[in-house]
Amino acid sequence: MLYLYNSITRKKEKFVSLEDKKVKMYVCGITPYDTTHLGHAFTYVSFDVLFRYLKYIGYEVIYTQNVTDIDDDILRKAKEEKRNWQELGGFWTKKFLLDMKSLNVLPPTNYVKATDSIAKIVEIVKLLIDKKFAYERSGNVYFEVSKFRSYGKLSGFNKKQMLIIAKERGGNPDDPLKKDPLDFLLWQKSKKDEPFWNSPWGKGRPGWHIECSAMIKNYLGDQIDIHGGGRDLVFPHHESEIAQSERFTGKKPFVKFWLHTAMVLYQGEKMAKSLGNLVMISDLLKRNTANEIRWLLLSHRYRKPWEFEEEEFEKTKEKFSTVLKALKDVKETNKTSSLNMIKFSSIMDDDLDTPQALTFLVNLAKEILKKNSNEGNEDKTKLKFTLLKCLLVLGFKL
Ligand code: ZN
User: Whole-prediction pTM value?
Assistant: First the structure.
């Protein structure tokens, strides 16, 4: 039985899907205006393992991920580089997908662009205004936070904390058009030189949070099993998604399980574009194999912050080569060691404890290597195939 740590209840809970044997999962994707770094890889490899593990334990998984292809950052960067914003977004999306492919990350069931969901976005915003949960001011439309009492239930922040963070993360609490500084944009008027879509409120473009609500509604429905993303998306992004989606559909909870990946630090600080301390996947791939990078990422618990150090690859390489040695001449058999498969599953069932799972697999590899080739051949073949099977569940390419 799988247990996952649910960010909204702040505890590990038994995972039960809304529909029998089917999981609807959404993970917030990238804003393609710059390169992909190790922090992104940590998030998408972690959710890739969840995607694979859910399938392994028998679920049909519909996994949707978005690309925020229209956004303040993209427009700013396009202006700086004198490039077309769509061309810029397309360029970095392609790079991201190549990085993910080289790390053996499975493509989601639906990979969707925000700009492909404008009609749905307009429909949601319209209804929110009709129901008086949102209001229009000079071509902008805001969600009225006071109309959603439990705003803050995911992050657990009080109003004061929310205001500070909203300011840091582009929430613009000082906007004089707002009734309340925490109200957030659903739709914004496009500036003269910005791209626009026609709407009942004039020429504009969607706010940041609404696209995920629209895509979830479009591709997965009113309620989903799992919503994931990086820890820094909890507020205001996910908090706002809950408010607008639950007010739009009238159904709650919008999401059953919220899962957040921890931040990756480098040189003592969060790895971030703004700080310039990025570790690029393409650079790491010059010195390490994709499997070694995956191993290093999975040797960290998905929800625990960690600091990347290049030296960590030394140990990683040693462990992975032990595993490869043990796999030499592995043959497919119809038998696996059920005891070891059960042990592996029980580790993964505990909120995807991949560091433990890797330790378990290294020990299994050592056990295989210890076996004399003259004795217990059948047992050795079985153990080897078991090791291979577990590694495949974790997404290694072998
Ligand atoms: Zn999102």
Answer: 0.96
